[in-house]
Amino acid sequence: MPHDPSTIAILMPGDMGHAVGRALGEHGHRVITCLAGRSDRSRQLAAAGNIEDVGDLGRLVREADMVLSILPPASAIKLATDVANAMTAAAARPVYVDCNAIAPETVSVAAGIIGAAGAAFIDAGIIGLAPGKGTGTRFYISGPDAAPMLALDGHGFEVIGLGDQIGQASAMKMCYAALTKGTWTLQTALLMAAERHGLYDALIEEFAFSQSATLNAMQNGRLARIPADAARWVGEMKEIAKTFRAVGVPGDFHDGAAEVFRTLARTPFATETRENWDESRTLADAIPVYAAHLDDTGEEQD
Amino acid sequence: MPHDPSTIAILMPGDMGHAVGRALGEHGHRVITCLAGRSDRSRQLAAAGNIEDVGDLGRLVREADMVLSILPPASAIKLATDVANAMTAAAARPVYVDCNAIAPETVSVAAGIIGAAGAAFIDAGIIGLAPGKGTGTRFYISGPDAAPMLALDGHGFEVIGLGDQIGQASAMKMCYAALTKGTWTLQTALLMAAERHGLYDALIEEFAFSQSATLNAMQNGRLARIPADAARWVGEMKEIAKTFRAVGVPGDFHDGAAEVFRTLARTPFATETRENWDESRTLADAIPVYAAHLDDTGEEQD
After folding, report:
1. What is the ipTM of this complex?
2. B184-217 pLDDT tens trace
3. What's the gap in Å between the CA of B186 and the closest CA on chain A?
4. Do B65 and B137 sit in the same domain of this protein?
5. Between chains, do A256 and B250 touch, taking CB under 8 Å as contact?
6. CATH code where residue A216 lies
7. What phi and psi, each to the nearest 5 degrees, are found at residue A293?
8. Is there a contact between B215 and B208 (Cβ–Cβ < 8 Å)?
9. For residue A8, which of A77, A83, A96 has the smallest C-alpha distance?
10. A127 and A177: one domain?
11. Nearest Cβ partner of A175 from B171, B174, B199?
12. What is the pTM of this model?
C-alpha cells in the first residue's frame, strides 16, 4: 500500500466528513462513500463534497486504500463492526482511521474489532472547523501504523502525530472538546438557572460590568446556535466523562453537559443545520426557549 | 432603628468580612465582632479591619443595629441559630443580613430561624473582590425589610436591590459564582485529565493556536492560586448545585466543581492565604501537583 493512499473512503459524509472528502478530492485523491440507507442530507453533502457513492460496503473496502470513520460517537462501534465484517467477507484490508469523538476506552474496542479483521488501525481526533471553514483543521493521530495518515498532512488539513499509542489522539480530542463544549453548556446551564429564577436581565447587567469578555463570547459565540448539533453531542459528552473518570478526574461536568444538550435537542431550534440556522437569533431570544424545555417544565414549544 | 445603622456587627471577619468592616468604619460606623473561639488569622484580620471585639454574642446583639453574616457557606445555618438564640436571651433584635454564598432554599431556613427570634432578615449576595481590592464590591440584596441595607449604598460598596423576595439575592450570587468558579474548575479538571493522559504540553500548544484568549485567562488568572480558597468553596459549589436543581437545571457541573475543590484542598498549596500565596507559581507548575492529589492516586506530596 502506498503511503499516500490514492482512494479514500469517507464514512459518513456529514458536516465534517463531506468537507474532508472535498479537500482530499482537491488534492488528487479519489474519494468514495457508501450511501445505502443514508439520509437525503447525507446525499446532498456527498454531492457537495464530490464524493462518489460506490453502493455497498463490500465494494467500498475493496476499492479503498483507507477508510475514514467520521460519525456521531454513538455509531462508532457499530460502523467499525460493519466495516470489519465487510473486510473479512471481501478479503480486503484498507487502513481504518477512527476519527470519532470517543474515549480512549471506546477507541480500543474499535481497534480490537478492526484488528481482528486483519487491518491496520489509526486513532484520530479532529480539532477545528471543517476544511475550508476556519483557520485550519487539525487531525491529531496516534498508533503504531500512523504513516499513511501522516502522508496526508497538507492535503486540506494538518496531521499531527501524538506517538504510537492508540487512544492518545482520542484523549486529546476529548480534553479539547471538554473545554469548548463544556464551557458552552456550563454557560447555558447558569443562564437557564438565572432565567428560571427571574434574574436573567440582572445577571447579564452584572456580567456586562464585571465579566464583559465572557459575556461577549456568550452573546456573539455559538450559544444561541448549539441546538443544531445538540443531539450528536450528547454522546460526545458521555465519552468525555468516561475519558476523565478513567484517570480519576470527575466526569460530572460532562454528565451535566450531556443533560444540557439533551434539553437543547428538544427545542424547535434542534431541527436547524449549520447550513440554515438562524444567524439573527440572540442569546436573549434563545435562553427562554432553552429553559422552557428543561425536563421538569412539561411545556412544549413548537 | 435608624435607616443608616450606626453600629454594625461583622460575623466573621475573614478576607471579605474584615474589608467590609474596615470600609464601614471609614464611613463613620462603629464596627464590632465577637472573636471568642476564632483563629489567630481572624484576630489579625479583625485588627486590620479596625473591628472591635465585644467578647460574646449576647453583648454583640445588644449593641448592634445590624448583623452581617459573612461566612463559609457550611456555617451559615449554625451561626444564624447561635445569633437567634443570643437575640432571644438578650431580648435584642438587630437586623440580620445573610451575606453567605448559599442556595435560596438554605437562605429560607436561615430566614425562618431569625424570624422566629423576632428580627428582620435581609438576603444578600456579595459579588466582586473585597472593598479596597478591585473595581467595587456589589451587595445584591432582597427581602421585604431591605431599607437598612439600601441605606449603606456607597459606604465602601454598592448596594443593589433585587425586590422583596428572600432568596433572589442568593440566587444571583449562585448564578454568578456558577460562571466564575464553574469555569475555573472545569478548566482545572480538563488540564488534570490531559496531564494524566500525558497530553498536557500538546493540549497547551493546541490552545495557544486555537483558544488563545482562554489559555491566557487560564495562565494569568486564578487557576494556579485557587487552592487557597478551595476548602471553603466546596460548600459553595454544593449550594450552586442545589440552586440549579431547584429549577430543573442540571447540578452536575457544580458537583464536579466541588470534587475539584476537594482535590485542591488536599494539595500543599491549600495552606496558603490571599496574603501569602505564591504569585510566581505558573499553571504548568500547579497542574501536576493538583493531578497528583486526585482521589485514585494514593500519592502524598508534602
Report:
1. 0.94
2. 999 999 999 999 999 999 999 999 999 999 999 9
3. 7
4. yes
5. yes
6. 1.10.1040
7. -105, 15
8. yes
9. A96
10. no
11. B199
12. 0.94
